[in-house]
Structure formats: C-alpha cells, structure tokens
Amino acid sequence: EGDLVVGGKMIEQMSDTDLFKKIMKGASVFARITPEQKLRIAKVLKDNGQIIAMTGDGVNDAPALKKADIGVAMGMMGTDVSKEVSDMILLDDNFSSIVNGVKEGRTIYQNIRKFVYYVFTSNASEFFAIVIGVVLHIPSPVTAVQILAIDLGTDVFPSFSLGLEPPEKRSVSKKERKNKNVIIDFNGFKRIIYNGIIMATGAVATFLWSMIRGGWTFGAPIVGSDPLYIKSTSAAYAVLAMTQMANLLGARSEKLSVFEVGFFKNKYLIFSIFISFGILLCFLYVSFIQKYLHLSPIDSKDWMMVIGSMLAVFFFEEARKAESK
Questions:
Q1: Residues linked to residue 6 through DSSP beta bridges, in sequence order
Q2: Per the CB 3.0–4.6 Å rule, which of 6, 37, 103, 317 could disulfide with 33?
C-alpha cells in the first residue's frame, strides 16, 4: 500500500535524477520495460551508491545482470548467457532463496568480523604485555613459547566457534550500513586496543604480584630458569589465556549484551571454553608438557587474579555496549 508502479513510457520521459527519486519514494514495480530500461535502472541505482541484486533469465537481461553488484540468474528457466554473466544462479528459480542467501551472507560476514576481532585482541594483549614490561624495566611477563601456546593452544577452538555463531537478533531486517567493505572499522580498532590493554595490564599485575610474593624486588636480576620466574610467567600466561574467554563472550556481538545474545545459544562456543580451560590446566599441571612450555602450577592467589582480570574484561565490554545504546 502506497507503493508506486512505474511503466516503461514513464521511464522514457524521466531524467536519471527523477528516476532515482521515484525509486526512493517507493516505486516497487516497473512494468512493461525494455532490457535497455532495465539496464538503466541498474545504472542509476549503482551511480547513487545503492547495492543492487538484479534477477533475469533471458539473453536480453545479460547487460543488467552484469551491471548489478550481484546478478541472479534462473537455474531452471534461464538461458546459458544469463547464467554465464551472473554471480548467483537460483537452482529452484525461487525468489525466497535470494532472501535466505542474503541472510546467510550477512551472518557469515558478521562472524568473519567477530573472528578477526577476537584474534587481533589476543595478539594485542600479548603485544601490550611485552611493551608494558619493557616500559617498567622488568623481566618479560610472558615468554615467546608461552605466546605460541596461547595462539596455537587455548585460542584455537574458541576462534573457530565464532564462525558457528547464529545470526544476531534483527540482523536481517535492520537497515544496513554503507558498503565500506571494512572488516575492522575505527570503533572495532578501539575495542581491540582497550581490551588488549586491560588484558595485558591484568597479566603484568599478576606477574609482578607473584614475583614480589616470592621475594623479588624491582631491579633485581633473575634468570629465565628460576622457579619463581617460571611460576610468575605461568600466572601471567593464565591471565592472558582466560581473559580471552571473557573476551570471547563479548566478541559474539558488537552492540548486544551477552545476556541479550544468550549464553547458551552457541553451544559450540561454550564447549570450546571448557576445552580451552582443560588445555590450560594440562599446560600448567602436566609435568611432561611443563618442561617444553616453561610453565608450572600457580597458587590460589594467582587464580584470584585470573578471575578478577576476566571479570574486568567482561564488565568493561558490557558497560561499553550499554553506553553505546
């Protein structure tokens, strides 16, 4: 109701500007138009920054299908020419398949962004932990082999689970942003920096507290094989690994709270957290693995720092999302 119907003769009398205005005012049906006019409609829309999916089945539709961002040909009734120039072929000739494709495509795009954000945040936390250690003139809070253990051990399954995240609420019906083709925008970059610094700060604080409890003082030399240094880096490693689990929950949506998304909506994600925690415990408490990763068991006070750092990351993200609404 209220939409406009535009005929081919009307299009002949319109300029490109008038045609675009008519489309944006609600012209949803174009009747009795020629292939040239179909191509013109696609060109006018594209020149004005719109993203176009154009359907067709005949040879004459080929130019318009080629001009559109996504040409959609009919698989059953379409000609070979229309199929050749198209980006997508509907095997069942059912237009509802386009809607399902758009929905699936948006979900995949969102999950790619979540995956990249999660991995970059992990790398940022490791980088900032080293930088903070250099600035404070203290021994490195984590070693190279421990960073490798995070990237190839505890981070693997959680990052994969983000690729299986179901679509967010209202993700299909909401108005899409301009086509920037950007995986991480400026706001996403700021999230990476902020959360990376929080995670790194927790790791360095845990490292220093463990060292000081063991009798170390600022400026005192310590060798990498010292049991106190190994224990302290193990505590920092545990913070970096487990704060990523808190960050994983926040990475599920850029704007929606974890409570809105639903804790158990992605069962693979919850399962991956338990797997990563199990891997962490093996790294810390299985003697066969300890000697290769230069890790050792940590005490209850270190675990309290781990939990406190996780809560800091979790509630920071929840507060940021609440403020952005």
A1: 30
A2: 37
What does the block give as tokens for 269? 């994600």
Angle at 296 between CA 294 and CA 297, to 5 degrees: 160
Q: Report the 3 state secondary structure along 6-25.
A: EEHHHHHCCCHHHHHHHHHC
Which residue is listed with tokens 């220093």? 208
3-state DSSP assignment of residue 4: strand
**pLDDT tens track for 68-98:** 999 999 999 889 999 999 998 999 888 888 8
Angle between helices 227-251 and 96-136 (to 10 degrees): 150
Q: In the 8-state DSSP scheme, what is residue 60? A: G
Which pTM was predicted?
Answer: 0.80
Q: Which residues contact 225 (CB under 8 A, 6 or more apart)?
A: none
Per DSSP, 246 falls in state H
Contacts of 229 (CB under 8 A, 6+ apart): 139, 211, 222, 223
Residue among 128, 139, 275, 148 at smallest CA distance from 192: 128
d(CA 85, CA 58): 11
